[in-house]
Amino acid sequence: MSTPPLAPTRDPESLESVVIRFSGDSGDGMQLAGGQFAATSAILGNDIATFPDFPAEIRAPRGTTFGVSGFQLQFSSTDIHTPGDVVNALIAMNPAGLKVNLADVAAGGIVVANADEFNDVNLKKCGYPEGYSPLNDEQINTSYQVFAVPMSRLTREALEGSSMSIKEIDRCRNMFALGVAYWLFERSIDATIEHINEYYGALKKRPDVAEANVKVLKAGYYFGENAELFPARYRVPPATLAPGVYRQISGNQAIELGLATVARKAGIDVLYAGYPITPASEILHGLSKLKHLGVKTFQAEDEIAAICAAIGASFAGELGVTGTSGPGVALKSEALGLATIYELPLVLVNVQRAGPSTGMPTKTEQGDLFQALYGRSGESPCIVIAPKGPADCFDSTIEAARLAIRHMCPVILLSDGYIANGAEPWKLPDLDAIPPIEVTFAAPPDNGDGFHGYKRDLETLARPWALPGTPGLEHRIGSLEKQDVTGNVSYDPMNHELMVKARADKVARAAADIPPTPVRGSPSGDVLLLGWGSTFGAIATATDKLRAKGHDVSSAHIRHLSPLPPDLGDLLKCYKRVIIPENNTGQLCMLIRAKFLIDAKGVNHIRGRAFRVDELVEAVLELIND
To answer: For the ranges 6-15, 499-508, 518-527, which has the lowest average pLDDT?
Structure first.
């Protein structure tokens, strides 16, 4: 069924962009509602950026602030890079959702609350004083446009006579909220109806659940149309994007598709061995469905077994990949050193989260850069690269695999929770235009000298990739130091120094594959904002805002962190000041100061969330005016 026509007396108000946040208990389906709103907005041609926010507790007491789950989305008619700073519209399914998120709503912003949940019990659970309800607070109603909608009651009325239990019926409330939001922002409900019928009806074999959710979705939409509660409706026109076919993609999904592309482009199978850990687990789940594309998955009994299985796959002639988050990298560190001394290709995906230890497992951070660069015993250099956003994870994954195979060494891919769970439009690439990944296995020697397992390529210093069991390619392998060329065990001090330097030089030579560093703004000037990883969106947007205010500010974002881009030193000299925003205590800043001897300054937030643009602009202005 098509979306009902607009009421003739209500012409929507046109807006450039809107930030909407769905918030409620972790069982209220906020991720589903927000994800469907994002998918629909992408279909309508808006540029989008999303930020799902999960509670850290596995199952916090229902109705408490600890269990609040949220999904924020910015949809726009222009090019955007972040899910937005302030919220224009908040959908709050319970008092806890309102309490946790109200401060983020812009003055005069819309608040749609499920009035049925604002009872004495739920208000007490989230810490409101007895006898108080925020829906009746005069100051709140003056500061925001507050609309109390009895979503629970209206959901039950829409499903009156259903064979479903009350508990199952109440699970449909998120569809009522979604229907209201669709009406309020002139979104079609068609794509969501199709998704519901396909997922619940066809896949889950629950046509009753599909029918119920569709009914409630329509009830919410028609409520917005007929209740005459909202004084206005809003329209965000499509964005002007480069021609092509687009889909919504998260960082974890992009890594999955990147690894499938690696299998095709390299002509070898990929083995992804992992152990469940937030926020990397989805990669293992997604790849388990791609066996037909040359990707095998293995869930090991622990992190150490997972990386050892991946190393074994690489030894056998496949590309071994393992994925985890920071605590898992700590457990994998000895085996990562093993891959370094084996000199075998390996990709380790680290989806960073807030630490230390368990820390805040569902929150984001960039705290593992030093761990990636130095977190192993002995001199164990690895190539380290970091995608700048969800869509960039696809290209960065292919780049990681290409470098691992070309240089026969481990490569660490540094994503984080913000990138992994966030989503944005991704233009489907032309797979034929992606260059093949050259894989050359060693051939038995015909010179009578025998096979030399550590005789290096003169350009890359990579050792030959010998398939076990091949006659004539027998050689020693293990964790003890290797003799140069032969690979035999050696305790010679001068040989050890030679091999340590060779392994480091091999990583350094990967710099020849790094393209010139792009600059946003002027190629020289007063201030350069330098970033890496998930800070890209905030830095790019802050740069544009500062330049619009007349400040001589440019920015550069680096994907390659080890080795660093070969042109970076010269680039930094083109600016009077270098400011490095990071979601850590200043790890890249320390590295840049040490390597290039410049007085770089850091802007450092360690708050479990990405930078807000307004915060970054303010911090940069303080440093400029200091």
So the answer is: 6-15
How far is 475 from 462, CA to CA, in rounded Å? 16
Contact status, residue 280 vs residue 305, Cβ threshold 8 Å: no
Question: Pick from 429, 450, 481: which residue ends a domain?
Answer: 429
Q: State which residues form the domain around 19.
A: 13-235
End residue of a domain, out of 481, 513, 545: 513
SS3 346: strand
Same domain, 445 and 425: no
Backbone region of residue 38 per phi and psi (left: phi > 0; alpha: psi in -120 to 50; beta: other values): alpha
**How far is the C-alpha of 337 from the C-alpha of 378, rounded, in Å?**
8
Are residues 483 and 395 both part of a single domain? Answer: no
| DSSP line for 460-529 | T-PPPBPPTT-TT-----SSSPBPTBT--B---HHHHHHHHHHHHHHHHGGGGGPPPPPEES-SSEEEEE
Answer yes or no: do 213 and 253 share one domain: no
Whether 295 and 223 share a structural domain = no
Tokens representing residue 5 in the block: 């026509």
pTM above 0.90, yes or no: yes
Q: Render 49-103 in DSSP notation, one character per residue.
A: EEEEE--SSSSPPTTSGGGEEEEEEEEESS---SS-SSEEEEEESSHHHHHHHGG
Q: What average pLDDT does range 163-190 have in this prediction?
A: 96
Per residue in 58-105, pLDDT tens?
A: 778 889 999 999 999 999 999 999 999 999 999 999 999 999 999 999
**How far, CA to CA in Å, does 351 sit from each of 74, 251, 328, 532?**
23, 10, 10, 14
- Looking up residue 570, the CATH number of its domain turns out to be 3.40.50.920
**Token couple for 154:** 């209206």
Q: pLDDT tens digits, residue range 404-435?
A: 999 999 999 999 999 999 999 999 999 999 99
Number of domains in the chain: 4
Looking at the structure, do residues 64 and 199 belong to the same domain, yes or no? yes
- pLDDT tens string 458-490: 999 999 999 999 999 999 899 999 999 999 999
Q: Which residues pair with 91 in a beta bridge?
A: 22, 112
In a shared domain, residues 419 and 453 = no
